[in-house]
């Protein structure tokens, strides 16, 4: 049985064999390193609509942090 080459619309040069390149790859090799350096938080759509920009979210969270400090001082 003769193998047919499947043509794709990718930009990979013909001299690179994708099957050979993917054979040696290790899934999730850098996942731990990536997650260790990330501090992204996914906002719910309603929260995003209320603030609209990342600066506004950061300002609101900083205000909450300050209010928590004030609240904990008055309780002692």
Commentary on this structure:
The chain has 76 residues and is mainly alpha-helical. It has one domain. It is 53% helix and 0% strand. The protein has helices spanning 18-23, 31-36, 45-51, 54-74. The longest helix is centred in the last third of the chain and has 21 residues, at 54-74. The mean pLDDT is 83.
The oligomeric state of the chains shown is single chain
How many individual β-strands? 0
Give the SSE order as H and E letters: HHHH
- The percent of residues in helical segments reads 40-55%
What structural category do the secondary elements indicate?
mainly alpha
Question: Strand share of the residues?
Answer: under 5%
Summarize this structure briefly.
With 76 residues, the protein is an all-alpha fold. The chain contains four helices and no strands.
Strands, helices and their partners?
Layout: H1 18-23, H2 31-36, H3 45-51, H4 54-74
Features of the shown structure:
mainly alpha, 4 helices, single chain, 76 residues
